[in-house]
Amino acid sequence: MTRYGFVIPTYNEAEYIGRTIESIANQQDEQGRPIPRDQYEIVIADAPAEDDTARVVAATAVKFPGLRCTVVTETARSMVIPRNTGIDYLLDQPTPAQYIVSGDADTIFPPTWLTTVEKETRRGATVVSTAGFFEADFWRRCPALTRRYTEHVGTVFFPQSIVDSHVREEERPLFTEQVFRDFGRPVSDCALVIEAQTYRQLDGFRPGYYDGAGTHEIPAVGWPFMFRAEFADIDIAYVRTPEYETSARRMLHEPEALFSGSCYTGEIENYRSENHDQHAVLDHFADRLDMAPLRRYVVKNYLLQQCITRPERVNQNAAYFGDVAAELAERIAAWRADHTQAVTREIFAFADELTDQFLHPVLELAAERALA
Questions:
Q1: Which residues lie closer than 8 Å to 331 by C-beta, 6 or more apart?
Q2: Does 276 have pLDDT greater than 80?
Q3: Euclidean distance between CA atoms 308 and 343, whole angstroms
Q4: pLDDT value of position 273
Q5: Which of 194, 178, 23 is nearest to 120 (CA)?
Q6: How confident is the model at residue 274 (pLDDT cuts 50, 70, 90)?
């Protein structure tokens, strides 16, 4: 019986998809023995393009006898529809998968990832959020950027290996992985596990939109699904280790989009023309990056937004909010009373409002803890 069905949308992913499939096919138990391949299946929801993604999928899968790896075609350019096409394929099989794993084409699953998830599902978890970060090699090759993050944001974006090797023992960063243990980790499209029955109960993944007209799609499936699960009082288990790795390609190739408030954006193209090492390019400008938007991102998405769907987190984590905890709890309670059927864009908008109001006191308290 298939317990886990991996669904991975692809579009021009020939460069990455082979590594992802190999990482799934090489899953092991705690004793290092291969997990029987009849326990899982991989479905690639491919939007045909100009590269050879389908050929790479076939060439990789044949290396692993018994691996079930199917390519289904979905031409819709959407974050949600291809994933749904792959999931529908899995759930329509004579023996459908018991758990859906939403993955990305550049995600590397560590060898005991599935074994660790299995422990949570056997304990009764129906939705599992797992920890993952940009590949450790990215941070190693960008030491100035790593130091900049450490000093101005914290280690919340770092895998443990980078924390161990690049953060001094006496340092007290603003935000660390403790945030996820206290507030829960927002689920990621990269490695989200959902029991099939719970997936159906919540009516699966649905497109979400930033606008009421439904023309500007929210490029994620995990956040909207998480909101609906938490509003339905479904607990989300958080697995800290082992950490999956994902490519830092967007950080490397589109840094202007991620650091739009930084002063280097007008110069980067000229510098790139002289240096084709993207890691070196990014690291060259590290000391001039504006980290304020990233601090805001952490406070908004990892603290305040997590309290909208689970208001009890305010009191459970009062140390993060200090004197404004009661006011924050009141604002959330009033909003919840007026938004009993809130959609994702409304949650995002309210989280922005909360961040406008509470960002500075939260950051001040975080700085005090770091100096304590």
A1: 354, 357
A2: no
A3: 12
A4: 42
A5: 194
A6: very low
Structure tokens belonging to residue 362 = 């939260």
**Residue spans per domain, the chain:** 4-137+178-247, 138-159+167-176+253-371
Does the N-terminal peptide bond of residue 242 adopt cis geometry, omega within 30 degrees of 0? yes
Give me 292's structure tokens: 């304020």
Please answer whether residues 3 and 40 qualify as being in contact, where contact means their C-beta atoms are separated by less than 8 angstroms: yes
What pLDDT does 342 receive?
92
Q: What is the pLDDT of residue 257?
A: 61
245, β-bridge pairs: 108, 133
What gap in Å lies between CA 122 and CA 135, rounded to an integer? Answer: 29
Tell me the two tokens of residue 243: 């950490």
Q: Could you read off the pLDDT of 183-237 as tens digits, one per residue? A: 999 998 899 999 999 999 999 998 888 888 878 888 888 999 999 999 999 999 9
d(CA 157, CA 168): 16
Give burial (CB, 10 Å; 0-12/13-18/19+) of 53: buried
pTM of the model: 0.91
pLDDT above 70: residue 20: yes
The 8 Å CB, 24+ separation contacts for 139-148 are 139/166, 140/165, 141/279, 141/283, 142/279, 142/282, 142/283, 142/286, 143/283, 144/283, 144/284, 144/286, 144/287, 145/282, 145/283, 145/286, 145/289, 147/286, 148/286, 148/287, 148/289, 148/291
Q: What is 4-137+178-247's CATH topology?
A: Spore Coat Polysaccharide Biosynthesis Protein SpsA; Chain A (3.90.550)
What per-residue string of b and e applies to 317-348 under the rule 16 or more CB within 10 Å gives b? Answer: beebbeebbeebbebbeebeeeeeebbbbebb
How far is Cα 196 from Cα 201, in angstroms, rounded to an integer?
9
Could you give the 3-state DSSP secondary structure of residue 66? coil
